[in-house]
Write a structure and sequence with these properties.
The complex is a heterodimer of chains A (518) and B (159). Chain A has helices at residues 11-15, 18-31, 72-77, 97-100, 118-123, 128-133, 138-148, 160-169, 190-197, 199-213, 227-242, 273-280, 309-321, 323-327, 360-367, 401-406, 425-439, 445-448, 450-462, 467-484, 488-492, 494-503, 512-517, and strands at residues 4-6, 37-39, 53-57, 60-64, 89-92, 176-181, 217-222, 258-263, 304-308, 330-331, 334-335, 337-344, 350-355, 377-382, 389-390, 415-420. By secondary structure, chain A is α/β, with parallel strands linked by helices. Chain A has 4 domains: 4-97, Glutaredoxin; 118-327, Rossmann fold (3-Layer(aba) Sandwich); 330-420, Roll (Ubiquitin-like (UB roll)); 425-517, de novo design (two linked rop proteins), CATH 1.20.1440.230. In chain A, a hairpin with a 2-residue loop joins strand 3 and strand 4 (60-64). Chain B is an alpha+beta fold and 159 residues long. The chains are: A alpha/beta (518), B alpha+beta (159). Chains A and B meet through helix 1, strand 12, strand 16 and helix 17 of A and helix 2, helix 4 and helix 5 of B.
Chain lengths: 518, 159
């Protein structure tokens, strides 16, 4: 049997040299006159071990990583083609604790398969959800998704089934499925990983959404910063079209559905759904006032489902295994699994899909292994640039929508960025305001002007200028932005600022006399 | 973009791009991406043919071009280094790294080295937050950067 070697083509693996490793392995194979099949799979999500090379053997897949090109001859000497031992060997991939502890529903195939192999996709339970969906009525599909308890994974946590139901009931000759893949939050990469590692699951999810709501066209709106995801997604759509998964007759049914990828142009605010719709229409990505809801008047004024990549990629498994199966995972009103992204200054950074309900502390220390620098954790930012900073004192917070909201935070797209004790929280607060100022669409005053003024006020506090008065001013400004902004950009930018101020007041105490004395 | 791109050449090539994308729903962004790819920027001379082709005013097209960070008014240097400035990269020394790069190149954000070799642009997240600090040199991604590796990347682009 010709051995199979898996070398990820995920952007995170490429960024740390996966292509060079692949070239080194190919060279070594030919130099030694050996034969092996090289598969470029997605990433398993153990990013600190990337490039993570796997070899398929008689007793499962064996993992080696992080592999550098210089390690390759040694791996061959150690007989890695038959799973030989080596200092970089982690044994059977499946048995690695980081993977074994996960519940992979949405990411079941990511890192396992060749992303562009439909054969692989089918072999690992792909298309079962869509095959079921084409035999169901739209109302039954919507009910299944509603009953699963799936909530929007983009951040707002709105029940997906209810949104679909609105679109299903909305009159309109043309309806759309828009996938929000404008994953701009720092600390998040789950959407990118799915698009690069298992693109068919997103296509399948969107096709199901189309059948469920009567939409015949879909768009994936993603970022220009994700060129690899764009290329793989486009190839996958072409393959799906040729296989009859997309087109005038989805899987031979009476339903038509087709889709394409559209690329943004570096505007963070286009991750906001109404701004995204304007951008798709070819306009400035300014936010629209709601109502009307996009479900009723969305893309080109037509009823439109706007869902996050993770929401849509979770639909196939729900249809395949049933609403009850999915619903049984999780806690409280947060059902199912959530792909958590561990990022920043963390030892074991990567993707960890698990049922809702772990605490922040478990995620950061037990799973993430603490900081990469080895220094104590000072703060973690959850939910991207608009998410609150949590101090270790709040690490008992349970990872679910309501628990985070109760503590003045949001889980957002479930990215966690860890900072060690060298972080200056005043600087982080200033960055939040600066970022909001750079990315504001300019439509509403609290965001457009507030973010600029917020940056200025924080600069004054940093200089130690009348700190009490300026902190009071900052708090007032944050309140205005929260209550008066049109969308989450201006509305949530105060979260990192206020949480930094509340939990790390010492960092805002920049007495000029004390500083001079230091 | 070659310096020889005359206004007429730009107009003709842009009109061609517009007609190629005309059947799309909401064609303006795809058109602007194609124009940007062809000329390394969205030149002033491209605005009118786009407006003509889509039945928009010049002001509307200009409004869209100026809204998005990606669209340049003039071409960048021969290489573009996009350094991530977002939080995950900050948490592992991204700010210091950026300062080092700026000092080494003698330029600030959005600037090009005097010899036209490298343009430095900030980027807010490349989705490589678990192997930060991260950067993109032209189309190539780089993660787990440090002072040495970023110097190597810049040196390679200088050759």
């Amino acid at each position: 049997m010709t051995p199979t070697i898996f070398i990820p083509c995920d952007a995170a693996a490429l960024a740390v040299g996966a292509d060079k490793v692949a070239a080194a392995i190919a060279n070594e194979l030919s130099a030694r006159g050996l034969e092996a099949t090289i598969v470029r799979n997605g990433s398993r999500g153990l990013h600190w071990l990337e490039p993570l090379v796997e070899v398929r053997t008689g007793h499962g897949r064996i993992a080696y990583g992080p592999v550098r090109p210089a390690d390759v001859p040694g791996l061959f000497d150690a007989g890695f083609l038959s799973g030989g031992d080596h200092p970089l060997c982690h044994g059977r991939t499946k048995e690695m604790p980081y993977l074994k502890g996960q519940t992979r529903l949405t990411f079941a195939r990511c890192g396992v398969t060749d992303p562009l192999s439909l054969e692989d996709y089918r072999h690992y339970q792909g298309l079962k959800g869509l095959e079921k969906a084409v035999t169901m009525t739209p109302a039954d599909i919507v009910r299944e998704v509603t009953d699963s308890g799936l909530r929007g994974r983009g951040g707002a946590g709105f029940p997906t089934g209810i949104k679909w139901n609105t679109v299903l009931g909305a009159p309109g000759a043309q309806k759309y499925i828009v996938c929000n893949a404008d994953e701009g939050d720092s600390g998040t990469f789950a959407d990118r990983m799915i698009m690069e590692g298992d693109p068919f699951v997103l296509i399948e999810g969107m096709a199901i959404a189309g059948i469920a709501t009567g939409a015949t066209r879909g768009y994936i709106y993603t970022r220009s910063e994700y060129p690899h995801a764009v290329a793989i997604m486009r190839k996958a759509i072409e393959i799906a079209r040729r296989a009859g998964i997309l087109g005038p007759s989805v899987l031979g049914s009476a339903h038509a559905f087709d889709m394409e990828v559209r690329v943004g142009a570096g505007a963070y605010v286009c991750g906001e759904e109404t701004s995204l719709l304007n951008s798709l229409e070819g306009k400035r990505g300014v936010v629209r006032a709601k109502p009307p809801l996009p479900a009723l008047e969305g893309l080109f004024g037509c009823p439109t489902v706007v869902n996050n990549v993770m929401s849509l990629a979770s639909v196939p498994v729900i249809l395949d295994r049933g609403a009850a199966f999915y619903r049984d995972f999780g806690v409280g009103r947060s059902h199912g699994t959530i792909p958590i992204q561990l990022a920043g200054n963390i030892k074991h950074g990567g993707l960890y899909e698990t049922a809702f309900g772990l605490t922040l502390g478990e995620l950061i220390h037990d799973i993430g292994g603490g900081t990469a620098s080895g220094r104590p954790v000072k703060a973690v930012q959850v939910g991207g640039p608009l998410g609150a900073y949590f101090p270790p004192a709040l690490f008992d917070t349970v990872f679910d929508y309501e628990a985070f909201a109760a503590r003045g935070g949001l889980i957002g797209h479930a990215g966690i960025v860890v900072f060690d004790d060298t972080a200056d929280m005043l600087k982080q607060a200033r960055f939040a305001m600066e970022f909001c100022a750079v990315e504001s669409c300019g439509k509403c005053t609290p965001c457009r002007l507030g973010a600029v003024r917020g940056t200025e006020v924080l600069d004054k506090i940093a200089k130690g200028e009348s700190p009490e008065a300026n902190i009071a001013l900052l708090e007032d400004l944050c309140n205005t932005m929260k209550l008066g902004s049109l969308c989450a950009l201006g509305g949530f930018a105060p979260y990192p600022v206020e949480s930094a101020l509340t939990h790390f007041p010492d960092d805002f105490d920049k007495n000029p006399f004390l500083q001079a004395a230091e | 973009m070659g310096l020889q791109d005359s206004a007429q050449n730009i107009t003709e090539r842009t009109a061609e791009i517009v007609s190629r994308n005309a059947q799309l729903e909401g064609p303006l962004l795809p058109i602007l991406h194609d124009v940007h790819h062809a000329f390394g920027c969205v030149p002033e001379a491209a605005i009118q043919p786009i407006a003509d082709g889509l039945n928009l005013s010049r002001a509307e097209v200009h409004g869209v071009v100026s809204f998005y960070h990606d669209f340049r008014k003039s071409p960048a240097g021969r290489h573009t280094l996009k350094l991530c400035r977002a939080e995950a990269c900050q948490s592992v020394g991204g700010d210091q790294l950026a300062e080092d790069v700026m000092r080494a190149l003698g330029i600030d954000w959005h600037e090009t080295t005097p010899d036209g070799r490298i343009t430095l642009e900030p980027v807010y997240c490349l989705g490589l937050c678990s192997c930060a600090p991260a950067a993109m040199m032209d189309d190539t991604l780089h993660g787990r950067l440090d002072a040495t590796s970023v110097k190597d990347i810049v040196a390679e682009a200088s050759r």
